[in-house]
Design goal:
The protein has about 325 residues and is of the alpha/beta class. About 40% of the residues lie in helices and about 20% in strands. Residues about 1-10 and about 220-225 have low confidence and may be disordered.
């Protein structure tokens, strides 16, 4: 672990913000992420960076950046994102904390906008904003980003999905530490956090301002199926009336998919333990598939594939 020299005394009246960045194999992008922290118009920011066992040259790039900028660099084995964030929280000296992915970029006014808002609204515990999408080369995406802002409630976040963009959030350090940090049993830490806050009646606000460039590059963690992670997020609220809508929103066709793929035991377990959507597309088709032996389904697929290939002109 390399510790940065103590930062200069903060300007009067400007609270310290802790930025936490966790890197794992993002050598191509990490420089832009770090530079965006130091390009903030709000200057009273400490940066804590973790290299989580990178093997692609990220650690060497961070060590080069450490010669150019003052920040804390912790090189360690891969302990997972959430555990690394909690280690950063323990090292934090700030009043506010914001996490940054190493493939994203903060826009210059992000910290200034959020600190100003939190200072003026002491009853708000977390503030977020909007993202703009970029590609692997940093070009703005032609695909429009869906934007929503306001003050989400627990019921909204459970029944209509999460519209608090994780890459844009800033939270009070005291609030996070009162919870004991991020829940390390849940891998989608941002969704989990806003559910916890709103469930306890704490205010979360999403601003209309664009604050972060979110990079789509084909290997984003969120690009794969997140079913097991979303089940982790919802599990603490299984006894809440909103859980049925949470499950139906995130898993509308899961029973059908499991039955279709021959995972009958798992499909039955799901039907008995979860509020499976009782639609024809999900439950109806799924139950029909459940009574058909899977070897017949595979045989029908093979015959269909064979007939299709035979029908193609040569």
């Amino acid at each position: 672990m390399s510790d940065a020299p103590a930062p200069p005394k903060p300007p009067s009246g400007q609270p310290l913000v802790t930025a936490i960045l966790v890197c794992w194999n993002h050598a191509r992008f990490v420089r832009k992420a770090v530079e965006s922290v130091f390009a903030q118009t709000y200057q009273n920011v400490e940066l804590i960076v973790f290299d989580n066992g990178s093997t692609d040259g990220s650690r060497e790039e961070l060590q080069r950046l450490r010669l150019e900028y003052e920040f804390v660099l912790v090189c360690q084995e891969n302990v997972g994102l959430v555990r690394a964030l909690n280690k950063g929280l323990a090292l934090s000296r700030g009043k506010y904390v914001a996490c940054l992915s190493t493939d994203d970029i903060w826009l210059p006014e992000k910290t200034a906008i959020q600190v100003d808002f939190l200072e003026r609204h002491p009853d708000v515990h977390l503030v977020a904003g909007q993202i703009e999408s970029i590609d692997a080369d940093g070009n703005l995406s032609a695909v429009p980003t869906v934007k929503r802002w306001g003050e989400p409630t627990f019921a909204e976040l459970m029944t209509s999905g999460n519209y608090v963009p994780g890459p844009t959030t800033m939270c009070r350090v005291a609030t996070l530490k009162a919870f004991g940090g991020y829940d390390e049993s849940i891998r989608i830490e941002d969704y989990s956090l806003v559910l916890k806050l709103t469930h306890l009646g704490m205010r979360v606000v999403v601003l209309p301002d664009s604050l972060t460039l979110y990079r789509f590059h084909g290997s984003n963690w969120s690009a794969r199926s997140l079913e097991s992670e979303l089940l982790e997020v919802g599990a603490p609220y299984r006894n809440e009336p909103e859980y049925r809508a949470f499950y139906r929103y995130h898993f509308p066709l899961t029973f059908w998919r499991l039955a279709k793929d021959g995972c009958k035991r798992e499909a039955w377990r799901l039907l008995l333990s979860e509020p499976v959507p009782r639609t024809w597309a999900n439950l109806g088709r799924g139950l029909i598939r459940m009574v058909i032996p899977f070897f017949l389904v595979k045989l029908a697929r093979q015959l269909r594939t064979g007939l299709g290939s035979r029908a193609k002109p040569r």
